[in-house]
Amino acid sequence: MQRLLMLSVSAVVTIYSANAIADSLKGAYAFTGSSVCLTTSTTFTTSQQANPPASISTGSDEGIRIFKGNGNGTFTNRDTSVTAPLPPNTSFLPDASSSESSASFTYTVTDDEFTLQNVAGTDKGTVLSGPRKGQTFTIEGLPPVTGLISANGHTLTTSILTPGAETITYSNGQVFHRICARSRVYTKLDNDGAN
User: Fold this and answer.
1) Cβ atoms within 10 A of the Cβ of 178, count?
2) Cβ distance 81 to 61 under 8 Å?
3) Closest CA to 115 of 161, 155, 151, 150
4) Counting Cβ atoms within 10 Å, is residue 24 exposed (0-12), middle (13-18) or buried (19+)?
5) One digit per residue, pLDDT tens: the chain, 195 residues?
6) Which residues contact 19 (CB under 8 A, 6 or more apart)?
7) What span, in angstroms and rounded, lies between the C-alpha atoms of 90 and 113?
8) Is the distance from CB of 154 to CB of 10 less than 8 angstroms?
9) Which of 38, 9, 16, 21 is nearest to 115 (CA)?
10) Is the N-terminal amide bond of 88 cis, ω within 30° of 0?
11) φ, ψ dihedrals at 182, nearest 5°
């Protein structure tokens, strides 16, 4: 009987600890960051080299990510980017553009670290300026994002630690594959926005 009681208490403590960890990352966080993407209209080699034609882009991002405290969340993002073709690609002129996008995500927390993963089929956006102005797009296959939590939980940082190919499909039917390096710094807002 005593052993059964100890197991029951242990199970309750484990459940409480898991919920406490998930609740430790809850609320709305504003973020800024940068991105660099290598893009191809064909494929990447097994060693993650882009087959031509290829281009490179750099971007700055700003948005809000909402952690609901239960391992789920949503985010909105605004991006401004500059893109240039890589030799021998001369299929377009270098350009600048901006876009807005949103998605749902799941997350897990372990002590002062967390991992994010976008939910498939939810990452959608619209191009606001540049050669593709007015087109919509979807993004699939984003690699997991790894983050760190400050001691007071008011500041977060994230980065993609292992590169992986993702696919962006535009409303005009064009499909591109890209590998991006992204980093973000998050600041908790007064309004937690989690409800």
Assistant:
1) 21
2) no
3) 161
4) middle
5) 555 544 444 444 333 344 445 467 999 999 999 999 999 999 999 999 999 999 999 999 999 999 999 999 999 999 999 999 999 888 889 999 999 999 999 999 999 999 999 999 999 999 999 999 999 999 999 999 999 999 999 999 999 999 999 999 999 999 999 999 999 999 999 755 554
6) none
7) 43
8) no
9) 21
10) yes
11) -130, 145
CB 31 within 8 A of CB 186: yes
- Return the structure tokens found at 56: 């490179």
Bond from prior residue into 94 cis (ω within 30 degrees of 0): no
Contacts of 142 (CB under 8 A, 6+ apart): 117, 118, 123, 164, 166
Token code pair at residue 99: 């876009």
